[in-house]
Specification:
homotetramer, alpha+beta, 13% strand, globular
């Protein structure tokens, strides 16, 4: 369907969003297992909107690089679908909300090694395993993809942070070995976790993330051509909406009404189908692991613009 | 946002959908605990589309009454929100996908009596308990609501079927007593289950269901005035999309991309926000309890019209 | 094997146990769902030992009636085995420790309606259902059995307490309806729960319980003849040891080393095979629902007498 | 208590047990993840009884070495208690039956990294981690212990089998990394699993296992002095009885009535407190992973001798 936006002008709106939602005092949590994330000042807040017509609107700390963490899962999924095709990808991971924590092993045991969706850690490890079929250095392949879509050399892997995170990866190693035990991992558990952690340690700005995600708002058309078919692009949106916010996907769909994917680095990427991609970032997290200020800002933005898909 | 539909003409399209998807031979299952459902001929297939502009398009068995079963949960939720308000309703039931079967007691135990969402049985029992605050005969109140929205005296409660189903309601009684044990039921377990079963036993045609659900496509505006605020109507859509198809919500979002709610009577109601409400019906079910032919028809319809919200 | 006891003289030993373990100040909990239990003074403490040679040793409040609660499960199991035979009984309930709380519905769902053992509530409901095959008033049948074995008219059903407990039986009703749903209950859920609650509300003294349980220490020989075969009696002992103390069976086996069964009334019955039956009672409970002072006293008694079976 | 045995003479009895229970045709299963075990002829059957008075009775293949597998867990637990003391050991592992499979990760997640008992794999990994405090080569330390208690140089590590098993250890690596994530592993996950697998790969005969376990029947007194206090020895017996047979501990307690520990190599060690240690071996397993013929033989032996502790 064709869409005409009746939204208010974006520049003053984003500025107002920043004014309203930038944290005034320390609240929320930071992930204890990733020291580099704890060091980010609590009052960082940035937002960027990249539209399908090529404009980019930003406000706040939209040009400060942050750790994309699980936002990477959207892009690795797109890459795996592009390279291996949906049949192969969906034979090893489901597309259902999990109803449990993102790093739970329980569901994996009950469902015999088939992760519920590609956005919980177990599913993302399977996706990374797919990418490693082509290259052992899947993290660098992701970096190249992001750099191309973001349209500049900004994104980089914070290798020091990756190393530290790798030394705290017992839970992900447990998941990977468990997948291996069920025969759902081709590469070694250690190498998959290493690539996974390096993918999560990619640093990008709100502006870069919004531009990199634009192909999902544009029916699969990326910076220099088709990334995915229109239908696959839409379907990634559906998975973001049902599974993208850890165990708060329903709440986010209720309050924001848009496909989104969060990371424990405090970033959230959101797609307004046919119109724009949004990235908001603020480091402090709520109890479900999603950016506290970022979620509130997106709910506010959705209310003011009427961008909910519902 | 304003929406212009580029869809093909609906009349021939619906006829073609019926031709393509009406079951040719017996496959799928019927619920064993509700004898009246097993008696429906396997090759029944109907579809109706009610648009926000007031038109209704139908094809196949669109005027044959069927048992709405869990489709009723969308309407009781709307009624509870209308009468008790969101604060009261959402204090007793969550809005998250469950990741488990619709009648599971496990989640309820783990989350101490708060159902994951209003579309699993436990959540629907809590919603019915809300409605009973006003009247002990909540099922008749629902019938009046549906009759008014559907615009005619068609809908009726199949009391004989309800009685039979009630005598096979051990699982729902277990859920209700369990809710009671957690202090999340005000009325007696027995009376809540009785109302719940009678609500599920309401008979309607595809045409009536589509018209009755139209207020959700029309920002909350019903047949004779406001049922819900625009924002509450959108939010019911978000819950349908994330939780409406039992444990296949993700799959349905992926294939159809629209908010939907199914019932074991073989009906599915779907909302195209701002445009129309659809009801499709065919009695045989897939392994997750959703209409086999109905799901396929909706995926096909979504592909051909581009109505996906993503 | 023949057993010779090298234990110290029992009379002074029991007096010392009472002196040491009678609670000096209020600690531990009482079950909130059974008001009559909360009214018992915290410092009640009684102990009785009935030997296979016919002697009975007592100390403390050994002649004060208390609510036997789940201790009744040992006796109803014995009655069901006596009347229906092991094949019938064990076709509907397993003999494995549960690893979950005594009133959990989770295990029942995972194992499709077959309770893990006869001492969790679900299993005891199935056992009561067995007894009701012969008489609808299974609780009175149990009372007759206990009166005969205890050798006097002491035991009685506290009908007022039973009525109150029945009005707080939502969890047990949930379990019973759930069993019914799985086809593992012949009588109505309501009537089984009523009998179950009345069985639990039987009042007995330590002296009476010890005498009533003596047939288990005596290879199945009761007050006036064979209750069970030697092998069935031993096997009830094995189930007590592996499953008799809710989710603390392993801990009790470790500390006491004897087959035991506790009740939330604060009583614990213990069997020293070939030698004696013991009942200890003190109303305040630990976190697992077992008598705080009673457990400690039995560990002490086992250490001092060497009565552990290991 | 002093015990006098009224059992029949052992030599003809054991010969008869072998005649009755040695498998006549192939039935039961072998563990697929350990190729060396699958190669053992299905009709192997051996039994040995070592009495506290120093006699050893044997029959069948009692002098053929087999892979002790999880039987090792009894001995590593004894060694950890001996070296670290009960306070340290029991702060990191519980003593309760698990109610789930021996290699399940579910319980570990629910109970935050504290294994239910030392005989499920997770618990045994924690015990091995204890032993590694003293020496990185905990498997060789266990071998020395077993050699000394068995009274001869027979036991050896099948290093080739260990290597193969190690390459199929994804599940155990998952458990170890999961324990590490919860902070309940001091050594590296990889080194703990390697030691664990080498311990499991120790080869011993029935005669050697029975003699090595004799200290548990003798109140803690081993071949050349005290291994454990009488009370700790009894307590290991209680854990064997409640947790020693995977998820069939209740069934084994019911049928055999003695503390036992099985291994997937087909061996079972059993303690008759104060009297003897028994080892039976036959390679084919039942659905719970316990020796099919071995379990039946022990039930028969217990019936004929009256050795049940109940």
């Amino acid at each position: 369907m064709t869409t005409t936006l009746d939204a208010p002008p974006l520049d003053p709106l984003l500025d107002d969003i920043v004014r309203t939602h930038r944290p005034q005092r320390e609240s929320g949590t930071v992930p204890t297992h990733i020291p580099s994330l704890a060091a980010v000042p609590f009052n960082r807040f940035g937002i960027a909107v990249a539209t399908v017509s090529g404009e980019v609107f930003t406000s706040g700390d939209a040009y400060v690089p942050f750790s994309i963490q699980s936002i990477s899962k959207v892009f690795t999924l797109a890459m795996a679908l592009q390279r291996e095709g949906p049949v192969s990808v969906w034979s090893r991971v489901l597309r259902e909300p999990s109803g449990t924590a993102f790093n739970s092993l329980v569901q994996l045991e009950v469902e015999h090694g088939i992760p519920r969706n590609p956005f919980i850690n177990a599913g993302a490890l399977v996706v990374t395993d797919h990418l490693m079929k082509e290259t052992q250095d899947a993290a660098s392949a992701l970096l190249r993809f992001l750099t191309e879509e973001a349209g500049g050399p900004g994104p980089f892997i914070d290798e020091a942070a990756a190393l530290t995170e790798l030394s705290n990866s017992s839970r992900n190693l447990a998941l990977a070995h468990f997948l291996k035990d069920f025969g759902n991992l081709r590469q070694s558990a250690e190498s998959v976790v290493e690539n996974y952690v390096r993918q999560c340690s990619i640093m990008m700005t709100c502006e870069e993330v919004a531009k990199a995600a634009l192909f999902l708002a544009r029916g699969g058309i990326g910076a220099s051509g088709t990334v995915l078919s229109r239908s696959e692009a839409k379907r990634i949106g559906s998975i973001m909406l049902t599974c993208g916010m850890y165990d708060a996907a329903g709440e986010f769909a209720y309050r924001v009404g848009l496909p989104g994917k969060s990371g424990v680095g405090g970033g959230i990427v959101v797609i307004v189908p046919g119109h724009c991609a949004i990235c908001v970032w603020s480091p402090r997290l709520d109890a479900k692991g999603n950016s506290l200020a970022g979620s509130a800002a997106l709910a506010d933005l959705s209310d003011r613009t009427g961008w909910s898909v519902f």
